[in-house]
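Appendix C. Worked example: DUF4268 domain-containing protein
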Amino acid sequence: MFTVDHLSNRISPVKTQKFSELGFTERKHLQEWLAYQPDALGEELLIIQKEFDGFDDTRERLDLLALDKDGNLVIIENKLDDSGRDVVWQALKYASYCASLTKGQIVDIYQQYLHKYPPVKRHGDQSADVVLNAASRICDFLNAPDLDEVKLNLGNSQRLMLVAANFRKEVTSTALWLLGQGISIQCFKVTPYSLEERLLINIDQIIPTLEAKELMISINAKEAEEKSTEVVLKNAQQKRLAYWEQLLEVFQQSDCKLYDNISPGKDHWLSAGSGLSACPFRLIFSQKELRVELGLDRADQADNKFLFDYLFSHQSDIEQAFGASLEWLRLDDKKTSRIQFGYQVDGFNTDTWTQSVSWHLEHMSKLEQAIRAPLQKAAEALRQKHNGTTNV
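Step 2, the predicted output written as structure tokens:
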């Protein structure tokens, strides 16, 4: 930190002090400063207790206990000139103790604090009386209409704030590792300066830096999105597997023998041979649609288009045999083509699965009967085109 001399256009360093040299103590001074001005730590915090010792079977006490704007408990540990090597372990213990605190216990803890340290009006406060009701003050802080709508200390949401003039490497290394494991921990460096007769205090967040914190928020959001996607995908796969198992039991008892030797899977499709290589009959089961289709998926694009065109030339006869209009997708910009018939449905609603399985059975049976013979003729025409080429 420097002062600026406008006349000489020069800067001069401000003398750095040590708390011990100034006669300040951790409990009487640093703790009191933060209890009265918690936003010095970079955000709005509600101090609900200091020197909290309400832990079963231990006499340990944490320096300051606070709530943040999301209703998370914040454990604030203060040290003076040296953080000490055990401060992270100490804070982690307190966080583990606090993890079990219920909403009612937190309100009681704050109520005790208000009775012991009744807040005083600050300069400029025009309110008539200082409210000493803990529940009301918490609701006001969280902008909640009623305590019943307030969520406090959910899961493992506890946060750690370490405040000291200097941090040992073993502390910063551990803090950085904990950040990587998803633990919310911050380190604040407090530096006293003397300027003539005045004492200045500078508080810097060194872990994570503000730039790194913004990056970590982005990374955490991305990881949360990826985890959410994984959960959705896993649930969908489980649904599809269960549906195919139910469907195959019904198919095996029917006259449609396409799927007699097919096993259920987790994909949204289930394929069976049509008698022509790489031209499967497919059942489609998605969250929004049921479908039956014939896929033309041969390695040669020209073969797929030839087969499609041959079948399309018999569209009227095929659709008459099927009993409805089909969707003919030549897909000129792709290698494959397909012929399909679909039905919009709430596929993942298990209450409708019996009807969905019946729909699949009925329309796959119709599609096979309507298209198998024309497909065989299309295959023969393709053979003739290839002048007797085999493996068609």
